Amino acid sequence: MEFISQILPFVFLIAIMYFVIIRPQNQQAKKHKEMVESLAKGDKVVTSGGLIVEIKKVEGDFFAVKFNNETEGRLVKEAVARKYEDEA
Predict the structure, then answer these.
(1) Staple 64 to which of 7, 14, 38, 56, CB 3.0 to 4.6 Å?
(2) Separation of CA 86 from chain center
(3) Smallest Cα–Cα separation from 80: which of 28, 35, 42, 23?
(4) How far is the C-alpha of 21 from the C-alpha of 76, rounded, in Å?
(5) For 60-64, which contacts have Cβ atoms below 8 Å and span 24 or more sequence positions?
(6) In what side-by-side order are the strands of the sheet with 80-83?
(7) Distance (Å, whole) CA 65 – CA 46
(8) Contact 12/18 with Cβ under 8 angstroms?
(9) Alpha-carbon span 21 to 12, nearest angstrom
């Protein structure tokens, strides 16, 4: 009986950490992964560096992107922070 009463606080702390830290982080990562997979040609995204770019082509692990009318480049899918929504 003493063993259970000594272990119970640790189990309680682990459960709190799971529901407060680990589970929300996993849900956020899953949501971000689904968002990146759903991106298509013509979508505008904000990179983790703060650039707003337009996707020209979806490749394996990269996006071919257009920065402006003359500049194009490639962007690693992990560098996409979020989808850009125009506030027009």
Answers:
(1) 56
(2) 20
(3) 35
(4) 27
(5) 63/39
(6) 72-76, 62-66, 52-58, 44-47, 80-83
(7) 11
(8) no
(9) 14
Three-point CA angle 23, 25, 27, nearest 5°: 70
DSSP, collapsed to helix, strand or coil, labels residue 80 as: strand
Locus of tokens 């309680």: 12
Residue 87 has pLDDT above 70, yes or no: no
Contact, 40 vs 76, CB < 8 A? no
Average pLDDT over residues 32-52: 95
Residue whose structure tokens are 């990562």: 29
Nearest to 53 by CA among 62, 64, 37, 33: 64
Least confident of 22-26, 53-57, 84-88: 84-88
